[in-house]
Amino acid sequence: MLSFVTRRSFLAQTAIPLMAASPFAKLNYKAPELEGKDWLNAPGGPLHLRDRAGLVTVVHFWTYMCINCKRNLPIYGRWHTRFAAQQVEVIGIHSPEFPAEAIAKNVEKRAKEFGIVYPVLLDPALKNWNRWNQQVWPCVYLIGRNGKVRYRWDGEMNYGQLDGERKMTALIEELLAEKV
Hints:
The chain is an alpha/beta fold. The protein has one domain: 3-Layer(aba) Sandwich (Glutaredoxin). It is built from 5 helices and 7 strands, in the order αβββαβαβαββα. A 7-stranded mixed sheet has the order 1-7-6-3-4-5-2, covered by helices on one side. Strand 3, helix 2 and strand 4 form a beta-alpha-beta unit.
């Protein structure tokens, strides 16, 4: 684990913004590469963002005991189904909050129970959590065709009157319409 001073220096060098006061953020920085060899629903092996150049990607951070994460999972499933023909890939990153959530068999069991069929990277040591400067569960990022993180939503997307699912779905469509 990086010390606070070292971590701050790393963040300053990578230009990954910290969480904003609003659940929504418009961004523009190169997406950090995914690290890890343990995946669910990835029969071809580990996925890499560098291999998705020219394509839109949705990356979301979650953990299976988080109620807000559970409420967002059906949204990601709908995106997976709706945008599959346009080669949009939904990728979950399971980053545990509690020790039981770091056990791969527990995550696999819960992913099946929740009906998750898209790829999920297991992040038990929080390497990706730290690389992406994560601070909350759930969190979803939209990555454009140019490999840059363009939008982020922190928290439950349809909580109250936020209407995050509709807004982020429209942004996925906008990213698909963009030329590289």
